């Protein structure tokens, strides 16, 4: 499928299954396959990749790890599939000639075994109504939706094509990535140990303790993030044509970008572009270069299953580094690569001839782990905008990213395609305000070209001058009738008669005027001040963000049909059709990196919460911190 419009229409029916919150539901199933891998370390990484793909898509592994062999020669066929895809991608008429019912029946095409395996699993999954709501369930749901909407693009055959391409692409990408991860880190003087030191530090905080390291814990390891990125290290010629090197391509010619060439360009990545150097991802200026990092494709050709692949890579890599000591038997023996649709190492396994591993001693006692906010939190909210015939229901998909430097490399990956950003600082902290610039730079470099930004000062309840710290809530008998009711003044510090806010000793350090001047100089159109504690102004932040984005769409400044706009049409139909579910807007939330004294969820001692909290409960988890974050974090 090379037509961008057809590709976009087909993808909209399968993309819900790839959302991070849906993929995370398959994490326990992934753990079962990874545990089998740890018992078969001298067998193929590819076994694990295939079985996890089966678990995530069909709720059932293919059985490679269980049997310890290449079932039906499926893995061996990957080489043929890669070469075939590379060739017919340029000569599509050959594919149309070969992919007829007769040649399919003969089984002479290189993807025959994989196709048969996938179709059998898909058929079995369709009959199994008791399976969990996995990726295939989302696809079948999308198929029913396509039928109702009369789509001529997405049908059962298209769904089958997505399934077979997912099995091939997901398994080979993860397999090659894991092999590259182990190989290159072993040839780094201290790479393996540096990641292990990160893990040991995390274990002191109660993280990375599960038998299989959780995705949340894995993505919170900065050097692991950098190492995984390093191993991963449709375009039409514009009007008048384009010249690349010594070659000029006429207008209208479809161009393909070679990922390997982009990732090894010294022009983009500097003189060490061809060196394995995870440290490049920890540099301050990396945000400006990340737009050239395209291991998962770009635009309408980007891989929808990258969420699944990333979860596998991070979990497996972290668990192996923590639990195994690995060395290369012959350090002088180097890998060779074959460049097909992806670059594949000739040595397709980690065997006794190449690696020696020793299971590390691990503590026998286990602790109960609490759910912590690591790196990012996800939430969504329906916003109603306008009245009468112009009324719209907009769904905001909110990624609340951590504000510490420790998680900055993680946070940047969630900025891509964001339509809006809420930049948050602490009104009682100059340090948090001064730390905003890097996050703004990252958002503007990586998010939608028409990014809508709002600057928000939090902790308004602490902004009053005074020296009152952790005061107990006033009792009805001691509450003066002159205390203003909740929400009547911008600096209100009371919640009816039930709760009184804590006031910082220093009070406000950043005035609204100072914040406004800074925002004006950087073309941030809106500044606001809120209190996550009392709920004051929080709903208005997201309501205003939604209205600003909607206005840009109506004025033609944002095209929802552009994949990079960050906008998706909802189930109600097209925007201009007047549907109630006009759009789904992905809004990337950023936070500052140097707050003195993190925001805490605070409750009064005794009594119930005031009923005046109202809608704030819906936003509390988005705008305040979980107890897993300590000092130096922001909302």
Automatic annotation (TrEMBL):
Domain of life of the organism encoding this protein: Eukaryota
Chain segments carrying region Disordered: 473-494
InterPro entries the record matches: Cyt_P450, Cyt_P450_CS, Cyt_P450_sf, Cytochrome_P450_monoxygenase, P-loop_NTPase, Small_GTPase
Cofactor dependence: heme
Single GO MF descriptor: oxidoreductase activity, acting on paired donors, with incorporation or reduction of molecular oxygen
Oxidoreductase recorded as keyword: yes
Biased segments, Low complexity type: 477-494
Protein name as it appears in the record: Putative ras family gtpase protein
Record organism: Eutypa lata (strain UCR-EL1)
């Amino acid at each position: 499928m090379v037509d961008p419009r057809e590709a976009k229409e087909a993808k909209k029916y399968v993309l819900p299954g790839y959302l991070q919150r849906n993929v995370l539901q398959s994490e326990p199933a992934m753990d079962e396959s990874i545990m089998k891998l740890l018992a078969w370390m001298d067998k193929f990484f590819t076994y694990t990749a295939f079985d996890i793909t089966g678990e995530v898509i069909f709720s059932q592994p293919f059985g490679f790890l269980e049997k310890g062999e290449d079932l039906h020669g499926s893995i061996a066929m990957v080489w043929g599939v890669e070469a075939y895809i590379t060739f017919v991608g340029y000569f599509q008429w050959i594919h149309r000639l070969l992919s007829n019912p007769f040649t399919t029946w003969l089984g002479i095409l290189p993807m025959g075994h994989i196709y048969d395996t996938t179709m059998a699993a898909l058929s079995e999954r369709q009959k199994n109504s008791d399976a969990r709501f996995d990726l295939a369930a989302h696809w079948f749901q999308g198929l029913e939706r396509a039928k109702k909407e009369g789509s001529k693009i997405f049908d059962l055959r298209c769904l089958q094509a997505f399934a077979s391409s997912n099995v091939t692409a997901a398994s080979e990408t993860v397999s090659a990535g894991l092999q590259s991860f182990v190989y290159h880190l072993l040839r780094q003087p201290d790479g393996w140990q540096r990641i292990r030191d990160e893990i040991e530090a995390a274990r002191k905080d109660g993280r990375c303790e599960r038998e299989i390291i959780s995705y949340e814990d894995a993505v919170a390891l900065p050097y692991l993030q950098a190492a995984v990125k390093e191993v991963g290290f449709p375009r039409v010629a514009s009007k008048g044509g384009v010249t690349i090197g010594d070659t000029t391509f006429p207008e209208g010619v479809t161009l393909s970008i070679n990922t390997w060439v982009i990732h090894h360009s010294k022009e983009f990545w500097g003189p060490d572009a061809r060196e394995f150097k995870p440290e490049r991802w920890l540099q301050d200026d990396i945000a400006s270069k990340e737009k050239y990092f395209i291991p998962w494709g770009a635009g309408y050709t980007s891989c929808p299953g990258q969420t699944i692949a990333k979860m596998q890579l991070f979990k497996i890599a972290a668990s192996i580094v923590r639990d195994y000591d690995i060395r290369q038997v012959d350090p002088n023996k180097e890998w060779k690569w074959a460049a097909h649709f992806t670059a594949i190492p000739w040595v397709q396994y980690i065997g006794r001839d190449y690696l020696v591993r020793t299971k590390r001693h691990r503590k026998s006692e286990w602790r109960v782990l609490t759910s912590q906010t690591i790196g990012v939190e996800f939430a969504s909210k329906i916003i109603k905008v306008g009245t009468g015939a112009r009324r719209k229901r907009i769904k905001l998909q909110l990624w609340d990213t951590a504000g510490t430097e420790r998680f900055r490399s993680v946070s940047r990956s969630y900025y891509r395609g964001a339509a809006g950003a809420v930049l948050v600082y602490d009104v009682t902290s100059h340090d948090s305000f001064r730390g905003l610039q890097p996050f703004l730079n990252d958002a503007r470099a990586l998010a939608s070209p028409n990014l809508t930004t709002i600057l928000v000062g939090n902790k308004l309840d602490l902004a009053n001058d005074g020296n009152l710290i952790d005061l107990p809530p006033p009792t009805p008998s001691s509450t003066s009738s002159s205390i203003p009711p909740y929400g009547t003044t911008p600096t209100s510090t009371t919640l009816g008669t039930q709760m009184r806010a804590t006031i910082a000793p220093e009070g406000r350090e950043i005035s609204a005027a100072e914040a406004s001047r800074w925002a004006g100089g950087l073309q941030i159109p809106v500044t606001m001040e809120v209190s996550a504690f009392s709920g004051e102004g929080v709903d208005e932040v997201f309501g205003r963000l939604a209205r600003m984005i909607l206005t840009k769409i109506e004025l033609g400044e944002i095209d929802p049909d552009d994949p990079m706009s960050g906008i998706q049409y909802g189930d109600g139909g097209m925007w201009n059709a007047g549907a109630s579910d006009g759009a789904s807007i992905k809004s990337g939330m950023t936070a500052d990196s140097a707050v003195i004294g993190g925001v805490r969820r605070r409750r009064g001692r005794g009594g119930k919460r005031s009923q005046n909290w109202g809608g704030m409960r819906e936003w509390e988890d988005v705008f305040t911190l979980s107890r897993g974050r300590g000092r130096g974090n922001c909302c």
